[in-house]
Amino acid sequence: MSTEIRQLEPTQLWNKFADLNAVPRASKKEERIIAFMKEFGENLGLETVVDEVGNVIIKKPASKGMENRTTVVMQSHLDMVHQKNSDTVFDFDTQGIDMYVDGDWVRAKETTLGADNGLGVATIMAILESTEIEHPVIEALFTIDEETGMTGAMGLKGGILEGGILLNLDTEEDDEIGVGCAGGIDITATRAYNEEETPEFKIGFVIDVKGLQGGHSGMQIHEGLGNANKIMNRLLFDGFENYGLRISEIDGGGLRNAIPRESKAIVAIDAIHEDAFLLEMALASNAIKKELQTMEPDLDVVVSKCETPKTIMDLGVQEGVTRALYAAQNGVFRMSAEIPDLVETSNNLARVLIKDGDIKILCLTRSSVESSKMDLANTLRATFELTGCEVELSGDYPGWAPNMDSAILKVMTKLYEDLNGEKPHVAACHAGLECGILGTNYPDMDMISFGPNIKGAHSPDERAQISSAQKYWKFVLEILKHIPEN
């Protein structure tokens, strides 16, 4: 890891981030980071608790003169999204993130950076360790598994925390103060199919869709980014009618919360249609590239000959599933009627896996309106059930309703304007934050979310802005100085 990172200002923040990024911390594989945080708190001599689901709570007394201020919960999640390009050699289970400085940005070498939400975690660690920063009583809450189910926030019981204010450090625009977020639900469609022996007159091809940016399936769902699963399905859709195309395998996308960047399909076509197939693939690919050239300048579709696959999927199932994937909503479903420019409801067609007689399709539907969320979830359910899939709805979590009368919002709005000479953007976001879930057991807690500029989260293009981190750090310190009295 480059020593450049540890020399950046503020050094307290970047050094803790470097320490954190040396520890593998994938969602649902947080054992090492939980142990790391527990040891960190205990080594500081602070009360440190790991609850029954794995959340780490570290409590620090108020600094001198701040004892009469409201106790503050500072909250971030420990896990990070592990994404890399398919040709990148990197083992997230054993390797720390390899970071470097690129102008005003910190990046990782061909993987996600973990600034989401590692910069929030590092902020809290730096404050817990400091003997100079003014602050009230702090309850540091480090949750687990935010990225793949929010099970840490869901498992946190009432009565553990005493704070009256919660600062969630998981917003990715430094001029934004978050007051609300979307809820979400996972849609999983599965079915089995019969495999057939590939006829002798067919030949094999591999189709690779790659070079897409990917990104956060909530915060960036409105940007018009390409979805590799949708692009692949367009290429395959009329293949049987045109050149006898039969699908052997499809492997597209990855995590539900990441816009899919890559998809690979192994297919068989009638040998006599080889020239027509290659021509049609080139024409279709060029048309899609032209459509997406502004947002996806590096999109590439590579079609190459391969050994003929031994088996292909049942034709009736193939036609049904390609039609279902075409019909499945992807992207923005509805914009908010109440909040300008806010996505209300969306879906990410995140994962398509067809192999060895099994189909698995994963989606993540988000919405700030519960009824709209379930409307879209049932739309997707009906779409996939029509092609014989079993559909499971799971991982349902609530949104966070804005409170524009929040006392801490008023404090932070004034502080931001005093520090920066302009008003902050007070807004709800289309990402899933843990505030709504935490609020179910702590309904009287005054909650707010903010953070530094982070771009490309959930993709290998993730990067954190150095100058923004400096601006954000000053804001954090001023907020802690100005927490209201009890």
TrEMBL record:
What taxonomic lineage is listed for the species of origin?
Bacteria, Pseudomonadati, Bacteroidota, Flavobacteriia, Flavobacteriales
Alphabetized GO MF terms = metal ion binding; metallodipeptidase activity
Q: Which domain of life is it from?
A: Bacteria
Q: Enumerate the Gene3D superfamilies for this protein.
A: Zn peptidases
Give the source species: Seonamhaeicola maritimus
- Name the protein family: Belongs to the peptidase M20C family.
Per the UniProt entry, the Enzyme Commission number(s) are 3.4.13.18
Cofactor dependency: Co(2+); Zn(2+)
Q: Which NCBIfam families does this one have?
A: aa-his-dipept (TIGR01893)
Q: What is this protein called?
A: Cytosol non-specific dipeptidase
Family annotation (Pfam families):
M20_dimer, Peptidase_M20
Q: Which UniProt keywords apply?
A: Cobalt, Hydrolase, Metal-binding, Metalloprotease, Protease, Zinc
Sequence ranges assigned to domain Peptidase M20 dimerisation in this UniProt record: 209-277
Keyword check for Membrane: no
Provide the catalytic activity annotation.
Hydrolysis of dipeptides, preferentially hydrophobic dipeptides including prolyl amino acids
What SUPFAM superfamilies is this protein classified in? Zn-dependent exopeptidases
